[in-house]
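Researcher: I'm preparing a figure for a lab meeting and need a structural model of a single chain. I don't have an experimental structure, so a prediction will have to do for now. The sequence is pasted below. Please return the structure as C-alpha cells so I can convert it later.
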Amino acid sequence: MSQKTVSNVMQDIFEGSKFRCLPYEKRNLDEDPDSEYREYDHRINGRMFECPESNTITTVPTTGVNERTRSILTYFMDGSRRVFRFCDVILPNGRYYPVLAGQVGVAVLQRTNDRSITPMRKHVQYKNKIVFPDTINESDLGAIRVELAKRGLEFALGTYPTGQSGGNQNEDYISIGTKKILDLMHDLELDAVREMMADCDLRDDAMLVELAPGNETVA
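Model: Understood. Here is the structure written out cell by cell.
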C-alpha cells in the first residue's frame, strides 16, 4: 500500500469538518518564490520531511591552517530550513489561505585538538512544523494535533496572522507563514547556545561562530 502524502493526510483530517483542504503542487518557495507562476520548474526540490542519518557524519580534516597556531574559534553553528506550500485551506465563507509545512535543522560542529571537525550530536536537531492561518482557532488546532498523533506524525503547529486578526489582507501570507517556521529554527539555535553555556563549552578560549545564512529553502 502506498504511503499517503501530507496533503492526503490533511484532507482526511479536514473531512467532515467545516474546513476543506485543496491540495497544492509541492513547490520550493525559498528557492524561487515566483516559480508558481511558471509553466515549468527544472529544479529537483527533494523529499519533504526527510530524516538524515546523523551516524553517517564523519570527521573532516582541515586544510590551509597553520597547525602550530591555536585558534579560539572552536565551535561552528548553522541552521537550515525547508518550507513547502502543500495545500490551501478553504473556509466556510469561501476564502482560502496557504498552509505551509516546514522542516528546520540546527547543527553544531567542534574543532578538536587534532584540528579535525566533528559534530556535537547532542546539538543536532530536526523539527517539523505546520503553519495555518489564524482563522483556524485553537480548538480546531487541538483536533488536528490529535489526528496527526493518531497517525504517528510529529509536528509543531502554529498560525500566521491574517486580515481577520487586524492585519492587512493584501499581505503576503506565504512570507508571513515562512517567517513563523524560521522563528522555530532560530529558537533551536538559541537553545543550543544556552545548553553550551550551561555546560561551560563556551569560554574565552573556545568561541562559537554562527555561519552566515544561505541554505534555507522553501518548497
